[in-house]
Design a protein that fits this description.
Layout lengths: L1 H9 L6 H21 L13 H8 L1 H4 L2 E6 L8 H18 L12 E4 L2 H10 L11 H15 L16 H11 L10 E8 L4 E6 H4 L9 H9 L8 E4 L6 E5 L1 H5 L3 H9 L14 E6 L18 H24 L3 H4 E4 L12 H13 L1 E6 L3 E8 H21 L21 H7 L3
Parallel strand pairs: 1-2, 1-7, 2-3, 7-8
Antiparallel strand pairs: 3-4, 3-6, 5-6, 9-10
Helix pairs in contact: 5-7, 5-15, 5-16, 6-10, 8-10
Length: 437
């Protein structure tokens, strides 16, 4: 690192002192990022690779990019902003590809969803008995409009009457939709988090784990209930794997990770079996969908003392923003092309909860100027709206899909079900939480 910094300081500079310092700081953090976040043991690995790694690096452009979809927990729009974004993106993809039957799952390799985002991931990426996907993005939008009050039941009392919890009606809905289908029945790599009170650590339901052993495979209806479980109103949900060998005591994904983008990126970069040519964030296309700022965003929402519900929402919102900042820093100057964050800022929850109002709020958020996280400078307004950024990202998805039609190298090789169950090495969070069983 010292040699790198010396060479930088001794070379002629055309940048201002401020720009140079920012660039220098970015270089340092890039080295730290590769060393600690993504598993490179030494900065030398950035330039001194094994011959096989050099070959893989040389084929990266040919192999293309891994496409990641991440969906936040509910926040102020109950998932409507995310489903509206997905519906618009799917319509754009269908028009550009001249395929009226195209689905979101056709254009993404990995999906990660927390809370209501986990439910959307399950609906969009699970195949039915006939082998086809059970929900389109429009189906998800209509499903949430009709059922969000059942899925995110209101307590009906006090200042925090809208704190979410899954209800008995939600359990019936999920069982009717998914039946006996499990994580193993998803068509792409799926990551849905919850928090396991038994081990006091996050637990990630993962297709990569489920295809290797039934001890990591869970019914999809149970997964949806687990990632929605409200620790304040309903308490934890007891869950067992399909082989009855793994047990967890789950509370919602919002507690574990309200924004699962970083978990999805780490999963891809450390899973060479399924993503053999993905070596860094340069090899990724990531869209992260928020659901508006927390509805505990104004002073009139708080009481003294504050309720546990408010603390959880505040912590979840803060964690989500921290993930966005960290991911933006990881992508650095490449972020505007490879990483897109869709989030609604500055629009607080309206008092009326009629469906037309929450849809209107989602439309307003999509029409807002996009907000980007800037390295060490907080956030700034972009020149494009959220909707325009979605369209631009859709064009990148189309380009990647067209490139794959002529490529001889598959950059994604999904695991197939194993004949002899074995311990998975794909999802470290799942391993750590199940180690006591």
């Amino acid at each position: 690192m010292a040699q790198a910094l010396t060479s930088m300081t001794s070379s002629p500079l055309s940048l201002s002192d401020s720009d140079f310092n920012n660039n220098l700081t970015y270089q340092i953090y890039s080295l730290l990022e590769n060393k600690f976040l993504f598993g490179n043991d030494s900065p030398k690995q950035l330039s001194e690779c094994h011959p096989l790694e050099n070959l893989i690096s040389a084929t990266t452009d040919v192999a293309g990019k891994v496409r990641i979809l991440s969906i936040d927990s509910s926040a102020s729009t109950d998932g409507i902003l995310a489903t509206k974004s997905l519906s618009l993106l799917q319509s754009f993809l269908r028009a550009k590809s001249n395929n009226p039957n195209a689905h979101i799952a056709d254009y993404f390799d990995v999906v990660a969803g927390s809370g209501i985002g986990g439910v959307l991931a399950a609906l969009l990426f699970t195949r039915g008995r006939n082998g086809s996907l059970i929900f389109s993005a429009e189906d998800c939008f209509n499903f949430l409009i009709q059922n969000r009050r059942k899925l995110l039941k209101s307590s009906g009392k006090g200042l925090f009457r809208r704190f979410s919890k899954p209800s008995k009606k939600a359990e019936k809905i999920f069982k009717r939709i998914f039946g006996e289908m499990t994580i193993n029945d998803t068509v792409k790599s799926v990551l849905i988090p919850c928090y396991d009170l038994k081990t006091r650590s996050p637990f990630v339901f993962s297709r990569a784990d489920a295809v290797e052993t039934d001890g990591y495979d869970f019914k999809m209806s149970d997964v949806c209930i687990a990632t929605l479980a409200d620790p304040v109103r309903t308490g934890p949900v007891h869950m067992v794997s399909v082989d009855k060998r793994t047990e967890i005591l789950a509370v919602g994904g919002e507690v574990a990770m309200s924004n699962p983008t970083a978990a999805a990126i780490t999963h891809v970069l450390n899973n060479k079996q399924e993503f053999p040519f993905c070596n860094s964030v340069d090899d990724l296309l990531v869209v992260s969908l928020g659901n508006g700022e927390s509805h505990f965003g104004g002073a009139h929402y708080y009481s003294n003392p504050m309720s546990p519900a408010a603390f959880i929402k505040i912590a979840g919102g803060g964690a989500s923003d921290m993930v966005d900042q960290a991911v933006s820093m990881a992508f650095g100057q490449r972020g505007t092309d490879n990483y897109v964050r869709i989030q609604g800022y500055g629009i607080q929850e309206q008092k009326s909860r009629m469906e037309k109002d929450i849809i209107g709020m989602a439309d307003m958020m999509l029409g807002e100027k996009s907000v980007e996280s800037v390295l060490f400078r907080g956030k700034k307004l972009s020149g494009s709206t959220n909707y325009e950024k979605l369209q631009k990202f859709g064009e990148e998805l189309i380009k990647e899909e067209e490139r794959r039609k002529t490529s001889i190298l598959p950059n994604v090789v999904l695991k197939q079900a194993s004949q002899s169950p074995r311990t998975s090495s794909a999802t470290t969070l799942s391993l750590s939480t199940a180690s006591s069983y």
